[in-house]
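Title: Request for sanity check on DinB family protein prediction

Description:
We are preparing a figure and want to confirm that the structure record we downloaded matches what your pipeline produces today. Could someone re-run it with the sequence below and paste the raw structure tokens into this thread? We only need the token string, no images.
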Amino acid sequence: MAEFGEEDLSGSTFDWTDLSGSTFRAASLSNVTIRGTDLHHVRMTGVELWDVDISGEIKDLRINGVDVTAYVEAEVARREPDLAKMRPEDPAGFQEAWALLEQRWDSTVGRARRLDPQQLHEQVDGEWSFIETLRHLSFATASWVHRAIIGESAPWHPLDLPWDEAPEGSFPRDRAARPSLDEVLEVRRARQADVRRVVEGLTEESLAAETTPPDDGGWPPPRPFTVKECLSIVLNEEWWHRTYAERDLAVLETRAQ
């Protein structure tokens, strides 16, 4: 346990650092970037919170005593009515959701093709490039469909890309690779077809069935998951990463003008 008083720690980087239970008093957290970080049970009082952009899984968020969670969810749903389809409860719902995602991703890829190929490796505000996004979705499919549902021990492709804060494991994480869009799409489309086959073959019984990934240091960890839980994670990944990709493509398009 350390104490910092009247210290200048500006510009510091904290990777895999446990700050739980810490107290920040009269501290400056201006221009801070927080990624892949747990912020459970955080209490902020007497703060000045200006020009803040938050994206992620948000529950029980109270601002000046008002729980704004329901408002945020309702506004997101108003802007994206199809988001509700990403929380299906039966096989038909999963089939509809996956067909919608494939259709939307086809449009997004078409939009990306109109840019200079080198722009697809550009990051916007430190977020993943378009190519890195597709590589990550390939990793997600390998993890939650090929390993967790199908039971393959090592389904990884060398281009698969885990999230930056992923624990060490028996999977690739080559951030330096710069494959072309077509190279990434070759892997991506094969994985999409595999998900489609799983989804089209769903029954009520298979959707509710439990599955446990191999215990070999891969991802996800070897604990029981329902097939529904695994596929729901894939839908969530696909929806939100496409949302972020569309946002960043709009920025890249202005750069190309």
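Thanks, this matches our download. The CA atoms of residues 34 and 54 lie 10 Å apart.
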